[in-house]
Amino acid sequence: MLLIGETGSGKTLFLNLLYNCATVQALGSGFGALERFKQFNDIELENAQALSMESKTDDATLYNVAVGDLNIGVIDTPGFGDSRGFKQDKTNVQRIISTLKREDYINCVCLVIHGRQPRASASLKYVLSEITAILPRDILDNVIVVFSNTAYSLDLNFDPGVLKGYFGEEVAMVKMFFVENPYCRLEKAKAKLGQLGIDRVAKSLKNAFEQTSEVLTEMCETIKDFPQAHTHLSNVSSLTL
Length: 241
Hints:
Blueprint lengths: L1 E4 L5 H9 L1 H6 L16 H5 L13 E7 L2 E7 L9 H16 L3 E2 L2 E6 L7 H13 L2 H4 L2 E6 L15 H4 L8 E4 L6 H11 L1 H26 L5 E2 L11
């Protein structure tokens, strides 16, 4: 799975959620599972407002995660629209290309979009145009979209019709998933224990993680039969940015 998204979309936090999928399910039975969460990136850095538009992932990196019955190699990539400017975006594109060249194929492209944003920003359009230029057409049939910060389809502010111009009709509602990532609530939960009590906080977390577990299960059912799509990126290094 190639994991892509605009800086600030919640892409790396979604990776952390995938990595902790088993714990997500275990949290439904008790608050103690909270301590078993592991993270790839510092949650405080991810939430730092001053750095919110600077990519927290500086290289394209392969992680192996187990989501339900699936073992997935997830290629986490630097976010686009970085506040460090176009030169940094250009560097990030080349890093993604170098990583993909080392892979014979991928099964899935997962695009993470902040579902509360009302329209496609210039940087998001840049993400989409670069990725569709990089990858062969048959790979684009294996695209799924995760709308972060959005628990339900009715909460969605983003117009999904924008995506058809880049991926065609294949990106239908069946390939869209809505995630109000409960991973983001963990630190807040710890802080609220003394104010609200463990039972109340645990119930809130349980509901959030049970809902998220259902979404991840649905996502796995969608992608498990995606065929291998060969990358064929031998000429991509000459891409003009």
